[in-house]
Amino acid sequence: MSHIDPMSLPAPDPADPAGLDDLLSEDEKEVRSAVRQMLDASAEPYIAEWFENGGIPNIRELTKELGSLGVLGMHLEGYGCAGMSAVEYGLACLEIEATDSGLRSLVSVQGSLAMFAIWRWGSEEQKQEWLPQMAAGDAIGCFGLTEPDVGSDPGSMQTRARRDGDDWVLDGRKMWISNAPYADVAVVWAKTDEGVRGFIVPTGTPGFSAPEIKHKLSLRASATGELVLDGVRLPASAMLPEARGLKGPLACLNEARYGIVWGSLGAARSSMETARRYARERVQFGKPIGAFQLTQQKLADMSLEYTKGYLLALHLGRRKDSGLLRPEQVSIGKLNNVREAIEICRTARTILGANGISLEYPVIRHQNNLESVLTYEGTVEMHTLVLGQLLTGEPAFR
């Protein structure tokens, strides 16, 4: 083995001091680059305004552009879906959330919740009807599980579906549903005499409405609403035939959580890089604040936690691509990476000082968004208990 003097090697990139890019294939880098280029052109210049104004005015055009790029349901096979790897999907989520968590929520809800539910649990007819147009961004989906009084305990849902002749009639409410105000189709979970079942509900069905939830201070670029089901009558063919019990919706949530493991790192990277650049430019006491030890400690700690989170996400992605990823392992990733990402954002905010609360910089926007990401798709408490049960063999949920 030949000896190479480490000091003769090129200095590491300050934006990637551990050389994480060496772990990616050329195809994976190309996917990442394509997503970044699209976002830089179509979203990055406008995202602060969308956040401040509380919505994306050209949401359908943007969704179609995401569909043309192939990121909607990109990890699913067939039916117009791109069929890419779990790692490629994760890298796309990272880049999308580096622009904004609300955009990544749009993609996650579309692909990993609504589309995955139909792809995994639907009939062939349902798949043929909905998946191609959803993959193209021509139809937007939402996923109705959470209710006003039911969050972490979906088994206590109050939404009911009853048979009436050959039809199903749905009554109930769902709450905090991303994409709901402009969705074309909702995947709704309801209790029946046969247990929990899933239903495909076109949003134009009589008795269905999706009023928008206003006054949010987080995920403001993402439209969130209620689903109100008041005697919504559906044909028998609207039921997802392969989903029985809570296994159906929980499998969908696991797909979305995997995307969050990667996505949260995007918000962290954006904030960390903003802080690093700011520390080199902001002069106090005659020199850049990046020359002071306390600032360097903050930057070093942020870089370390980001690196560890990235390695964890990549490891879980490789396991998923090998068919070896367990839900408990996704919980490890979601628990660690969102928790560390929000701490990175908070630390970056301190480096920017008062500028850290301005939308002229992305940091406070990412920090506020992550407050929602910390809670949805499983709270910190629930993922902690999932890991606790794995470590002890004792369930402590009740």
How does the SSE layout of this entry go?
Elements: H1 26-42, H2 47-53, H3 59-69, H4 86-99, H5 101-121, H6 124-135, E1 141-144, E2 160-164, E3 167-178, E4 185-192, E5 195-202, E6 208-209, E7 224-235, H7 247-281, E8 283-284, E9 287-288, H8 293-321, H9 327-352, H10 363-373, H11 380-392
Parallel strand pairs: 1-4
Antiparallel strand pairs: 2-3, 3-7, 4-5, 6-7, 8-9
Helix pairs in contact: 1-3, 1-4, 4-5, 4-7, 5-6, 5-7, 7-8, 7-9, 7-10, 8-9, 9-10, 9-11
Keywords for this structure?
398 residues; alpha+beta; Butyryl-Coa Dehydrogenase, subunit A, domain 1; Butyryl-CoA Dehydrogenase, subunit A, domain 2; Butyryl-CoA Dehydrogenase, subunit A, domain 3; 3 domains; four-stranded antiparallel sheet; three-stranded mixed sheet; 11 helices; 9 strands; globular
Description:
It holds the Pfam family Acyl-CoA_dh_M. GO terms for molecular function: fatty-acyl-CoA binding; flavin adenine dinucleotide binding; glutaryl-CoA dehydrogenase activity. Keywords: FAD, Flavoprotein, Oxidoreductase, Transit peptide. This protein is of the alpha+beta class and about 400 residues long. The chain has 3 domains: about 20-135, Acyl-CoA dehydrogenase/oxidase, N-terminal domain (Butyryl-Coa Dehydrogenase, subunit A, domain 1); about 140-240, Butyryl-CoA Dehydrogenase, subunit A, domain 2 (Beta Barrel); about 245-390, Up-down Bundle (Butyryl-CoA Dehydrogenase, subunit A, domain 3), CATH 1.20.140.10. The protein has 11 helices and 9 strands. The chain has helices at about 25-40, 45-55, 60-70, 85-100, 100-120, 125-135, 245-280, 295-320, 325-350, 365-375, 380-390, and strands spanning about 140-145, 160-165, 165-180, 185-190, 195-200, 210, 225-235, 285, 285-290. It has a 4-stranded antiparallel sheet with strand order 2-3-7-6, with helices on one face. The protein has a 3-stranded mixed sheet with strand order 1-4-5. A two-stranded antiparallel sheet has the order 8-9. A hairpin with a 2-residue loop joins strand 2 and strand 3. Helix 1 (about 25-40) runs parallel beside helix 4 (about 85-100), helix 7 (about 245-280) packs antiparallel against helix 8 (about 295-320) and helix 9 crosses helix 11 (about 380-390). The longest helix has about 35 residues, at about 245-280. About 45% of the residues are buried. The model has no long low-confidence stretch (mean pLDDT about 95).
